[in-house]
């Protein structure tokens, strides 16, 4: 899983707190999910696919997941993009390789290639969503 943490944005925090905790958390969650779409598509495009498998394929289980919690009095939103827990071992084997399998990374490169786009979309989405909730 890939995780990003943004710190030091005091003005953004004030704006989000001004919307209320519930709405501010929803703004961050929705903006983050929209920003991670390019990473999701890149991962799906490069994830392994076994045509002979009868169960769900690993690339079909790649999704954007979010959770939130309260840490030190602040609302925190976590966003993850990657395969489900069921496919964790397969993803790890493809990403890092094994004794019998050559590594074919698809998780790290997806974020590396898309990080500028993710940050640009995130900034635009947060700004638009804050403006829409005023």
TrEMBL record:
Xref: InterPro entries: HK97-gp10_tail
Protein name (Swiss-Prot/TrEMBL): HK97 gp10 family phage protein
Organism (species): Enterobacter cloacae
């Amino acid at each position: 899983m890939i995780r990003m943490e943004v710190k030091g944005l005091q003005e953004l925090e004030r704006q989000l707190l001004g919307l209320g905790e519930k709405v501010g958390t929803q703004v961050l969650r929705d903006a983050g999910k929209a920003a991670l779409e390019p990473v999701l598509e890149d991962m799906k495009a490069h994830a392994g696919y076994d045509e002979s498998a009868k169960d769900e394929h690993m690339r079909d289980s790649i999704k954007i997941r979010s959770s939130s919690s309260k840490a030190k009095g602040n609302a925190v939103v976590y966003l993850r993009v990657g395969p489900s827990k069921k496919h964790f071992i397969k993803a790890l084997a493809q990403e890092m390789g094994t004794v019998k399998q050559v590594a074919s990374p698809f998780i790290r490169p997806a974020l590396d290639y898309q990080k500028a786009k993710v940050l640009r979309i995130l900034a635009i989405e947060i700004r638009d969503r804050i403006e829409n909730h005023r």
